[in-house]
UniProtKB/TrEMBL annotation, chain A:
The chain crosses the membrane at residues 35-54, 74-98, 118-137, 161-187, 199-225, 259-278, 285-305, 317-339, 351-378, 390-412, 421-446, 466-491, 582-599, 605-624, 656-679, 691-711, 723-744, 756-782, 803-825. This is cytochrome-c oxidase. It is a multi-pass membrane protein. Its EC number is 7.1.1.9. Pfam families: COX1. GO terms for biological process: electron transport coupled proton transport; oxidative phosphorylation; respiratory electron transport chain. Its main location: membrane.
UniProtKB/TrEMBL annotation, chain B:
Belongs to the cytochrome c oxidase subunit 2 family. The chain crosses the membrane at residues 24-48, 68-86. Subunits I and II form the functional core of the enzyme complex. Electrons originating in cytochrome c are transferred via heme a and Cu(A) to the binuclear center formed by heme a3 and Cu(B). Pfam families: COX2 (PF00116). It comes from the Bacteria. The lineage of its organism: Bacteria, Pseudomonadati, Pseudomonadota, Alphaproteobacteria, Parvularculales. GO terms for cellular component: membrane. The gene is qoxB. This is Cytochrome aa3 subunit 2. One of its GO terms (biological process) is ATP synthesis coupled electron transport. Keywords: Copper, Electron transport, Membrane, Metal-binding, Respiratory chain, Transmembrane, Transmembrane helix, Transport. It is found in: Membrane. It comes from Aquisalinus luteolus. It is a multi-pass membrane protein.
Length: 826, 213
């Protein structure tokens, strides 16, 4: 088979449906990556326009441009859009587009999940845009502090748009994080051990794990606040045993890791692009990986530095101050490793390099001011002033936008297969760089002169007029620069100058393919023996295209293979699902759920929940097959089992990491309970839970029976015995858990009267939800077994269900103990 | 006015001991920050020199990563942390016979001040204190979160419903100082300000005996 013939065959198998309609059913990572990036850039423009409105308002004193009520929506939406609808989705889009190509494989672990995440992002983002167009956007600042966001101070729907819309969007972040984690760990080219992974993959892995552990506290906080607003459960109201500080802890437990979730992928871009611009390899690969991991760990230990002025004891603050300044060490390691890389090579001032230099200047200043505000006494002065606004823009624009622009220009030939033709980019860089520093350097000073953040106007006698005007002029210069980037990218897509393959002479695998990329990426998968396979073998692209690698024979299926996590030895063979509308429909039904909450159409919620459950059932069901697949020949004399016959299928790994996020959510809930108990005013509660030994024993036993029974079912299946009886017992055990959990929700003392009872209600509901989910999964497995979709060989669904039943057992027992013991002890 | 430090709300125009020690901290950090920034920029600029390629990766890693990336920031940061900790400790409200105690209660959008030395008297949006004596403000809120901040006298501290936080302020000299609420609190936030009037000894006595309106 010739290379061209192979290309046609593979393209037919992997292509999305033609035309515009194909976007709605595509599950291809190249398409979805581009869609993510285009949508995220659209939101960047929207957020940027809002920034221009802010600068227009603040350009002069006594500004009558926008009333406070409107202005409050503008700055709240600016922050919200840039954080949640631009920065995080840009990372997701870049990772979705690049990772399989960098890792030498054909797609991500769960193609339909990628699409589902994208549509959740679009629909959730759409909700927020809608609120803005109709003047009912969130208006309490992007960190939404209660009681200001509570039902008393903010009775309108504005706050609900934030809480519900952002939670909806966060589904896409969690989905992408699970996807990225499993893809990096399992879906790589044979031979690519962890130590041979491209550095961007390491950064993406760390970022994805941080999303899994960083976002759940915010999701929890949003749910609690929305429940408080909708049903009056007083989690954040001091007079009923709640505490507004709980929100700040949950928010910043997310919010600070968030900063590194934004920075790390950008650092991954720098670590990838910089060595190519300097014609060398990265200095200190191992050190950089260690630094990224250290940053991830440290970033979870310094959320309190956003709360230095809340009255926490000084020695407590000192701990978080130390942790906050120590973050500068792994950051310093990376900065100096990059400068060392420049010394090692010969830096060329090509356009991506200009943006990297922009990054250095901006980010180093942002880091230094960051150390300043991490020093507690200085923060007492600088907190909530324009100084902090300036600092955070230096960090985020320097640490994210400049690197992303470097990456944009670096990978633009890859996205489009074309060369730059109009050289607007250099002028755009000059405008962006100048405009940015004029805007925000000035803003530091006006902050020191006492200008608070978030004010809509000021007086001439405040003495801030000149600085603000300069700042606004800088802002508009910056905006013109960004507009020029946009124009250049559009012109670039319209002109027809073909780019040579591998225009930058890079060594990573994403360039070892035709550009723009074919839907299957590689006609055959490479065998990787170093970090820069394309440098080692300049003929690699041609050899892969002519089928010399693995899985080079088209056979009407979307095939790839996985590897063992550390060694990169081939592990098993995977067949992907093909184009489907299931993800967009599922996202729409999920959106119906959130919309029902928003519009308080509670009758619609059960319909949406049943809809999601039915679609999820179908989602998994269509992957099944009724015959055992034999071992698969992947070429070069290697035979691999199919994923349906292994213990730890991609679905098992996906469940595992989803449960990591879930466990963080549950841990945050327990933290919240302990926090309210020990710190909140207004304790003890007026009434304690009436503990019941019977319910406690019943629930605990049910959880243990469920876990034991699923194991017996799994063993029976392996021994070719019918597992149905054991599955039935597992269902009964899970049902018992559900009953005991339901009893808690029904028997808590009035939850609107005290945060104690409200928290117990949430704990009980959490256990009830997971018990219901467990019952659904066991029922699914029963249907599968009854209809012949499982066999001793096709066993892979048993471990997945076992994982969820085990998780249910652990959290249910903890919930029962916490609820009943607090009742007894008191 | 562009590069001036003075201003009614300026952190860098201190009028009390707390604000002064923080302003000094700022200037020290600014100088240190500029020096470090300069060093990094020089190192980046020097990488563009024409020179023979250096292929000793292990040696480079030791220099760049271990010395510059780890040892250098650790040294600087430890010194800074110790300095910050000492200043922070000095600013805490500690027991002393001299202290005047005031309660500050915030709501959207007004401050009510009451005085332990003058039971029954409250003032709205104007806080009276004696100059030259430490004043401990017990800060709380009745609705949403606010923050008590007199930039020229001391740092800020939040007013949180259900909690009472204590902030020490002191004015060197008699005079009027501008105060702000520094936590976003909705539509009245722009104008949510107050004044601190620091009296000399006779003025303070007059206030305590109810002669000052």
């Amino acid at each position: 088979m010739k290379a061209l013939e192979r290309h046609r065959e593979f393209s037919r198998i992997w292509a999305s449906a033609p035309g515009f309609k194909g976007l709605f059913s595509t599950v291809n990572h190249t398409d979805l990556g581009r869609m993510f990036l285009v949508t995220a850039f659209f939101f960047f423009i929207v957020g940027g326009i809002l920034a221009m409105l802010i600068r227009a308002q603040l350009a002069t004193p006594h500004s009558a441009f926008a009333e406070p009520d409107l202005y409050n929506q503008i700055f709240t939406m600016h922050g919200t859009i840039m954080m949640f609808l631009f920065a995080i989705p840009t990372f997701e889009g870049l990772a979705v587009y690049l990772l399989p190509k960098l890792l030498g494989t054909r797609d991500l672990a769960f193609p339909r999940l990628t699409a589902y995440g994208y549509w959740c992002y679009v629909f959730g983002g759409g909700m927020l845009l809608f609120s803005m167009l109709f003047g009912i956007a969130p208006d309490s600042g992007w960190f939404m502090y209660p009681p200001l966001t509570g039902a008393i101070s903010s009775p309108g729907i504005n706050t609900d748009f934030w809480l519900i819309g952002i939670t909806f969007v966060e589904i896409s972040a969690i989905a992408a994080a699970v996807e990225i984690t499993v893809s990096i760990l399992k879906f790589r080219a044979p031979g690519m051990s962890l130590a041979r992974m491209p550095i961007f993959a390491w950064y993406a892995l760390v970022t994805a794990l941080m999303i899994l552990t960083g976002f759940p506290p915010l999701i929890l906080g949003s749910i609690l606040l929305e429940v408080e607003r909708a049903f009056g459960l007083p989690f954040f109201q001091a007079e009923f045993g709640g505490d507004s500080l709980l929100w700040q802890h949950l928010f910043w437990l997310f919010g600070h890791p968030e900063v590194y979730i934004i920075f790390l992928p950008a650092a991954g871009v720098i670590s990838t692009v910089l060595p190519v611009m300097c014609r060398t390899t990265l200095l200190g690969y191992g050190w950089i990986v260690a630094a990224a991991v250290a940053l991830a760990f440290l970033s979870f230990g310094l959320w309190v530095h956003h709360m230095f002025t809340t009255g926490i004891p000084h020695m407590g603050l000192a701990f978080f101050s130390a942790a906050s300044t120590l973050v500068a060490v792994p950051t310093g390691v990376q900065i100096f490793a990059w400068i060392g890389t420049m010394w090692k090579g010969r830096p060329d001032l090509r356009l991506p390099m200009l943006h990297i230099l922009g990054f250095f200047v901006t980010f180093v200043i942002g880091g230094l001011t960051g150390v300043m505000v991490a020093v507690v006494p200085f923060d007492w002065q600088a907190h909530d002033t324009a100084f902090v606004t300036a600092h955070l823009h230096y960090v985020l624009f320097g640490g994210f936008v400049f690197p992303i622009l470097a990456g944009l220009y670096y990978w633009l030939p890859h996205f489009t297969g074309r060369q730059r033709f109009f050289y607007l980019g250099e002028a755009a860089f000059a405008l962006i760089f100048t405009g940015f520093h004029v805007t925000f350097l000035a803003m530091h000073w006006v902050g020191l002169l006492g200008q608070r953040r978030r004010i809509s106007t000021y007086m001439p006698e405040d003495g801030w007029t000149t600085i603000n005007l300069i700042s606004s002029i800088g802002g508009f210069i910056l905006a013109i620069g960004i507009a020029m980037v946009l124009i250049e990218v559009i012109l670039h897509m319209l002109t027809s100058r073909r780019s040579p393959r591998n225009p930058w002479s890079a060594g990573t695998l994403e360039w070892a393919m035709i550009i723009p990329p074919a839907p299957y990426n590689f006609a055959s998968l490479p065998h990787v023996t170093s970090r820069e396979p394309f440098t080692d073998d300049p003929e690699l692209a041609v050899r892969l295209a002519s089928g010399e690698g693995y899985l080079g024979r088209p056979n009407d299926l979307r095939e790839t293979l996985t590897v063992e996590i550390t060694s990169g030895k081939p592990d098993y063979h995977v067949i992907y699902p093909t184009n489907t509308h299931l993800p967009i429909i599922m996202a729409a039904v999920t959106g119906t759920f959130f919309l029902s909450l928003l519009l308080k159409a509670y009758w619609c919620i059960p319909i949406a929940v049943i809809g999601v459950a039915a679609l999820a059932w179908r989602w998994v069901w269509v992957l099944g097959r009724k015959q055992d697949l034999p071992v698969q020949d992947i070429g070069h004399g290697i035979e691999l089992p199919n994923a349906s016959t292994v213990e730890h299928s991609p679905g098992w790994w996906g469940s595992l990491f989803l449960l990591v996020a879930n466990a963080t959510f549950f841990g945050s809930l327990l933290f919240g309970f302990a926090f309210l108990w020990t710190v909140a005013p207004g304790w003890p509660p007026p009434a304690w839970f009436d503990a019941s030994a019977v319910e406690l024993a019943l629930g605990t036993t049910g959880a243990m029976v469920g876990a034991a029974a699923i194991r017996r079912a799994r063993r029976a299946n392996a021994l070719r015995q019918p597992p149905l009886a054991w599955l039935g017992l597992c269902f009964a055990g899970t049902l018992t858990v559900a009953i005991a959990a339901a009893a808690i929700t029904l028997r808590v003392p009035a939850p609107v009267e005290h945060a104690y009872a409200a928290t117990l209600l949430v704990l009980g509901s959490y256990a009830l939800f997971h018990a219901s989910l467990g019952m659904l999964m066991v029922a699914f497995l029963v249907s599968r077994t009854a209809l012949g979709f499982t066999s001793a060989a096709r066993k892979t669904e048993f471990p997945v269900v076992q994982l969820w039943i085990d998780y249910l057992g652990v959290i249910a027992i903890l919930v029962f103990l916490v609820v009943h013991l607090t009742g007894w002890l008191s | 006015m562009l590069v001036g430090c003075d201003g009614a709300l300026s952190i860098v125009d201190p009028a009390g001991p707390a604000a002064r020690s923080i302003a000094l901290l700022w200037w020290v950090m600014l100088v240190g920050g500029v020096l470090i920034f300069g060093l990094v920029m020089v190192l980046i600029a020097l990488s563009f020199r024409k020179r023979a390629a250096c292929e000793d990766d292990a040696g480079s890693a030791r220099l760049w990563i271990v010395k510059l990336g780890i040892a250098f920031p650790v040294t600087v940061l430890l010194a800074l942390l110790a300095y910050g900790l000492v200043i922070g400790e000095q600013l805490l409200p500690r027991e002393s016979g001299e202290t005047v105690i005031v309660r500050a209660e915030a709501r959207q959008w007004a401050w009510n001040f009451s005085y332990d030395d003058l039971p029954g008297r409250t003032t709205q949006d104007v806080l009276h204190i004696p100059a030259g004596r430490p004043v401990d403000i017990s800060i709380t809120s009745t609705d949403v979160i606010h923050s008590f901040w007199v930039p020229r006298l001391a740092g800020k501290l939040d007013a949180i419903p259900g909690h009472v936080n204590t902030l020490r302020i002191e004015a060197d000299r008699p005079g009027t100082y501008q105060g702000l609420s520094a936590e976003f609190s909705g539509s009245g936030y722009d104008r949510f300000t107050f004044q601190v009037i620091a009296h000399d000894e006779t003025g303070w006595q007059a206030f305590l005996t109810g002669e000052t309106e």
